[in-house]
UniProtKB/TrEMBL annotation:
Gene Ontology CC terms: cAMP-dependent protein kinase complex; cytosol; membrane
Protein's UniProt name: 1-acyl-sn-glycerol-3-phosphate acyltransferase
Any one GO molecular-function label of the UniProt entry: 1-acylglycerol-3-phosphate O-acyltransferase activity
Organism lineage: Eukaryota, Sar, Alveolata, Dinophyceae, Suessiales
EC number: 2.3.1.51
GO aspect biological process, one term: phospholipid biosynthetic process
UniProt keywords, alphabetically: Acyltransferase, Lipid biosynthesis, Lipid metabolism, Membrane, Phospholipid biosynthesis, Phospholipid metabolism, Transferase, Transmembrane, Transmembrane helix
Transmembrane segments: 26-46, 101-122
Species this chain originates from: Symbiodinium microadriaticum (Dinoflagellate)
Domain text: The HXXXXD motif is essential for acyltransferase activity and may constitute the binding site for the phosphate moiety of the glycerol-3-phosphate.
Catalytic activity field: a 1-acyl-sn-glycero-3-phosphate + an acyl-CoA = a 1,2-diacyl-sn-glycero-3-phosphate + CoA
Region (Disordered): 422-444
Composition bias, Acidic residues: 422-431
Family: Belongs to the 1-acyl-sn-glycerol-3-phosphate acyltransferase family.
Amino acid sequence: MTWLLSKDILIVIDVIDSPETPPTCVLTMGARAVLTLLLGACVCFASRSRTEAAHAFALPTDRKLRRPPPVALVARTATAGPGAELKQFVRPKQRLPGHSVLAFFRAIGLMWTMLCLSAWVVPAISAGLPVVKRKDPVARKYVDRVICAWSQMTTWPFFSVKVKGRENLLPKDQAVVYVSNHQSFMDILSCYHLSRSFKWVSKASILKIPVVGWAMKRTRTITLEREDRRSQMATFRQCVSTLQEGASIFIFPEGTRSPDGALLEFKKGPVSMAKRAKVPIVPVTILGTGRLMPSKKEFFLYHNRAGVQVIVHPAVSAEEVQETPDKEVLLNLRNTIESALPLELQKGTVASCGPQVLQGQAAMDGPEGGLFTVECKRSIDADRYFYNLPCNGSYSISGLALVPPLPWQTRSGIPGEYKLDTEEDETEEPEFVPLPPPPKGRTQRQSVSAEAFGEWNQRVIFEPAVYPKTPDQTQELVEVTAQSFLFTSLEEKDLRVVIAAMKGPLILESGHRIIQEGDTGDHLYVVTDGSMDCVKVIDGVEMVVKTCVKGDLFGELALLYNCPRAASVQCREPAVLWELDRATFNNIVMEGVQRKRNQCLSVLSSVPLFSSITRGELENIIDALKMERRPRGDVIISQGEVGDHFYIVYEGQVMASKITEESPEPVMMIHEAGDYFGELALILEEPRAATVVASSDPEVCLLSMDRATFKRITGEHSALHGFLESNVDRYA
């Protein structure tokens, strides 16, 4: 249905009637269409801009409008050799969700709720106002608690707020400077869920907002005129005085709201006032408020199913603030807050030959047919790598990094495509923002990289090379690879493909150097005879740090992390090696590992034992599990023996039997996929309570965990340990 209200206004509403659509559904959609038309017409005649009114009440029929893609930050450099810094990045115009009737009325409802609740807030605060003017600390805290309760009651009907890291909050009576990212007016209401008393540092114009401005005046909010230098100095002195009196300060060091959620440049004021008052600083990250009420859309409150998260990071002590230069403290605070933001909003650096870098995705603009490598670094947490991405002159690419999953993977753990769209609005120039230099120091390797495939890097059918081998050589390689963590998760057919693709044998003489430290690596090597020395330059002297013997492999780090060779490798005595190329490693080994990992994640997610464990913690547990295959009839554990392992049934069935003094006949129990056993001996430090035998034909697949790992994981997760203890009587 289409109505033309004027030459500038065209409202189109689609009502689909199909044999599968119930009549009531059609009537409902029709009623909504008529209601929307009436509301749009009313606003059109009352608005100064009819076009804006029509847009405000148009029903978006495009799925992309209802679920916009994440904001893309494209980093640009003129030349980008290895280790090049990103001097500046361009921020395309943010694609926010369109205006909607529901969002408008949600915002009105929020304001109305706040106004109604003020019916008891105003008398409650006014009653203590004379005392507050005398700066009585008890009265100040009383007023702050009233405002805190008011804010929490206002937000409760509209969105949820979860606070993570409460253990990092300092005592309530200690003066603290809280610093946080800022992306929405909802940040203020969300921060009151910290249940702490603090004073805001805000622009003076916010005090003009009805009710909210009145409440902020009563809490002695410190105001600031951004363009007035004298006002800035007066505000600074007032903040220091407030901190010295024992009250806390909450400030947004960016100075304004971020239009897309990415951090802007931090001002040094919070660090200076904390150093002057000799108080600690607590960094806070706020997630989700930008989706609720984006910048420049203050009259629309959108629905955010994930709610709002307020993450409290460990505090920077007053001593550390005093001893560390201001710039370094400010950079550490920014990196800490940024570490909790989505990956696409974090800064990056060029690893090699990359003309552009985009927070974990590559925005390509170079000669067609070229290859480049992209490294996305975060100062806190793991590195993310993308490499061998084809340059075809496009600004769109789909990418994937493995372990841990990236934000655009589906909830089931199956990797999904993230399409980057950097199309800019023709009427608005992109905003250039200087990027701070990347932090120094290396981070611990925690991630594993893989080839990125997508719209502009289409997957092709991979046909690995096949090098002939004798049966003895094949069997020898099977035994060697079975001992390596890289190949333990592979299916037998995939392992056979990998072994067939190993080139060799390479026969080396003593002293031959096959890997040079710092070089780019494209192969890993398996030692089947002899020995190899790993040599590293330490203080200008080459030293042997490890010796690889038969059954070892080396060179895998360059393939796992796409990094230069960490050490040189040379032949200690005549040796025989087999080499595996990067293409086979990426297409067979890494995909097999990820496929098996996703399967394990799917199985463990359905186990009641892990119901209280988050996805990230569950992935760490998967890293600690080993896969075992037992043929039918094999005894896995025996009653009465000392237990050293905990088992989870991955595929197949096992039969548990127990003989007691009361009953000479064994008591039988069947464990299927998702069940677990063997925990009793590890919890109670007692012998095995039952015998468990593999009963599936031809074999059963188990996930096992040794005693030390079991103790560590259950100790870290009290809920997991409590669940196990509550089920100790399963074998009784």
